[in-house]
# Entry
Amino acid sequence: MNHLLSIEDLDRATIERIVTQAERFAEVSDREIKKVPALRGRMVLNLFYEASTRTRSSFELAAKRLSADVVNFAASGSSVEKGESLKDTVLTLSAHKPDAIVLRTPWAGASELVSKWCSAAIVNAGDGKHEHPTQALLDVYTLRRRLGDMDGLSIWIVGDVAHSRVARSNVLAFQRMGAKVTLAGPPTLIPRGIEQLGCEVRYTLDELDSADVVYALRMQRERMSETWVPSLREYASWYQINGRRLTPRQVLMHPGPVNRGVELSGEVVDSPQAVITAQVEAGVVVRMAVLYELLAGARDARPAPERSRIAGAPVPVAHPGAQLA
Amino acid sequence: MRLADPLVGPSDESAALLLRDVHVLDPRARIDARHDLRVRAGTIAELAEPGTIEAEPDEELIEGDGRLRLLPAFFDPHVHLRTPGQEHKEDLQTGTRAAAAGGFGAVIAMPNTDPVLDSAPLLRSLRDAAARQARVPVGFLAAITRSLGGEQLTEMAELRQEGALGFTDDGKPVQSAGMLRKALQYQRLCGGVLALHEEDPTLSRGGSMHEGTVSAALGIAGIPTVAESTMVARDAELAGYEDARVHFQHLSCAASVQAVAAAKARGWRVSAEVTPHHLMLTEADVRAMDTRMKMHPPLTTEADRQALIEGLRAGSIDCVASDHAPHARDEKEVPFEQAPMGTTGLETAFAALYGGLVLPGVLELGLLVERMTAGAALFDLPTPLVAVGEPANLTLVDLDAEWVAGEHGWESRSENCCFAGRRLRGRVLLTLAAGALAHRDRALAAVAV
# Structure
């Protein structure tokens, strides 16, 4: 594995390898000295174009526990605000020769682009509404620890699917691990055509009790510039996961940060069914496993970046139905 | 109303050459056979049986060996030449060089420049510049509304007197039906076609690609096809009500084709164009988030593509237009959602459609030539014709030539072509535009004597 750009690129065996490695690192976290020297002398650059507390600190902690050097670069207050393009920023920072760049941007496909502009291993820490692969990996890790084998599990992902990179990565990851995924939410927040990912779609929670796992998505108030639902109050009355809707045998997940009283009621957040803090804990060990997978012993094997003329895109191949001679 | 000559370009009508034994194909002139053709002083002087005209010393001789095709030069009613204001993307010279390289004998430039072409003095200066710089004649559409703001009509009558072929807010729709209705009414005074970019911004807002399975998988906000088709239906009805003449730009979906066909069936004076990229590519080509595949309207589904091909074949869609939309490399070398909309297309239009539709037997070559020249008449301009006494608007093509788009660079200042890197069939060797030699391919030296 050269980069972690999307769950789409990963097969089940790779996901299992990373998760198993994370389990080994979990033992390290329980020790008095939580550091291992696996990535001593390596440099991890956190490049964040969006506000993030938990993802960034979790990557920082993961890198430090592996003894790597960490540089944090936030877009606000930097050259980015002076109009520097993503490419120029990446090329400039590449002069410091980072071994890995952890990248979060509001733009789909940005990580893949960056992977073509520099020789560092790229970890996608969220690209627009596209993917958030390490979140999906830590969710798989958390579920395996809680429930064991995921084959045949029924997982409902509930809420604002349209604006959720977590939803897209998790649909792919959960399915790769053998689970059956249902997306539920208001019709205005379920993208047309999403069932092509192989999941089911529901507009009510009437059949929620068939789920083994309920994964609530954050209702992203900051994305609510347009009216997607009549009100948060009406949203909550139809889609909030609360004590009335959640049955005792179900596991509750949420990527955080939680809007109490909107997508989750306070009581379920604090219930023993909720694994929300376990997800946060898993974040560090899973990200350690990802960095380890990408960097340990791979420095010389790293291929040179391919240079492409525009947008780093591959030369297009003719559409099957539209053969160009 | 006295109107200026609507097309401006090179005044050099000096081409003198003999095209010997070329296969002339012009469906309007009902020619599909080998001929010798002589151009003198920029005019088609002789058309005779192959091998019957002897070359004279003061003319260039080009041997067609019965194999090279001579077609009427193509006409593109929709290009962005980016002048004034965005000359780092394209200018009158590079844009018309690209047109000539693609076999186009004339083009119509869009007014969404910086500043917007919405006043007579600006049109006058642009036409002066085109007369000096353009490689092929250029016609200009002026804006319908000032600054494309959608709120106040431009001085349409004065713009027409200055030579505006018609009007468009291309790049943006005229969102208000009431505003468009006023323009349609005013057309009774000033004439000129109203060319419409159809998009309901309340439906398309925030979208970067077609709303469908690919946008759902990528998490990129989609533009539903109804953003276009509902506006086509609305404006066709408005045009019918006002008995106005409108032209629908760059149709992208089946529902729009149906709306145009229905409007034509009711006798409304509407016409429509389609781009090579909407005829050849689909949302599947956007999967890799290549910004060259980002354009307005977006690439749609295979079913839409088939409907567009059928519409072009059946005549619901009147002509092909490239919507040549150059952007600088650094503007396109950004994440997909940040990139500007548009692909260049002048240099690849014919080859993409010849290889993609004619060779597989989907479209007759004669019909493709008809649809690539039909734009002129839609804007009340003479259609290029291969006949003695006509001005030399001719394109010589080698249908057997294979080439990779972009392999030798581009005549356009920009390289954001959605067909870049693809193997194409059919190469334009020579273009004569309004009697002047506008383009000669490097390969032609080999066949010239």
About this structure: The domain at 73-378 of chain B is CATH 3.20.20.140 (TIM Barrel).
